[in-house]
Amino acid sequence: MPQLLAGLALYGVSIALTVRAALGVNPWAVLNQGLELRTPFSFGTLTALVGAAVLTLWIPLRQRPALGTFANLALVGGAADAGLWLVPEPSGLPARAALLAVGIALNGFAVAVYVGARFGPGPRDGLMTGLAAVTGRSLRTVRTGIELAVLAGGWLLGGTVGVGTVLYAVAVGPVAQYFLPRWAYDPSGGATSARAAG
């Protein structure tokens, strides 16, 4: 449980870092930025609200939420708002580029930590797996379709699309893949693996 909570908190903070870099963010953050421009809600609040809306799409897909699903809704948005409050927007391209790089790396690490805890998928991941199961399409195809649709909607609403969006798409998967074996839950020991402990 502590691993799940830490991973989700770090995930929210990592999103805040990429937002503060102002060089482009991941598709769901683009959507949240666009909605933030047109509603009275904060970025973090919208992260939770959009997650809750996505969760309703699980119903026809017969997906069942787990503890990790609800923890995702409860923690990520608040952590993102806290990160935005704590971290000022840097001045100058080098500082912004560095903040973007740290944000993407931390995001990949956070994904490995909370996924490795194995408490269930977040709302967006559950939508992806549910649609893949129903349509028979590959996870890659379904995820690409979802994220392109979300990205387009967020961009039309005024969200920030840029080099950071591309770098996120390219880099976050390999970073998460690198860290995941080190943070995978070991059911035989009831804790993280020995590699994670080391």
From TrEMBL:
Taxonomic classification: Bacteria, Bacillati, Actinomycetota, Actinomycetes, Kitasatosporales
UniProt keyword terms in alphabetical order: Membrane, Transmembrane, Transmembrane helix
Protein name, entry field: Membrane protein
Transmembrane segments: 37-59, 66-87, 93-115, 148-171
Pfam families xref list: DUF6198
Organism: Streptomyces longispororuber
Keyword Transmembrane: yes
InterPro entries cross-referenced by the UniProt entry: YczE/YyaS-like
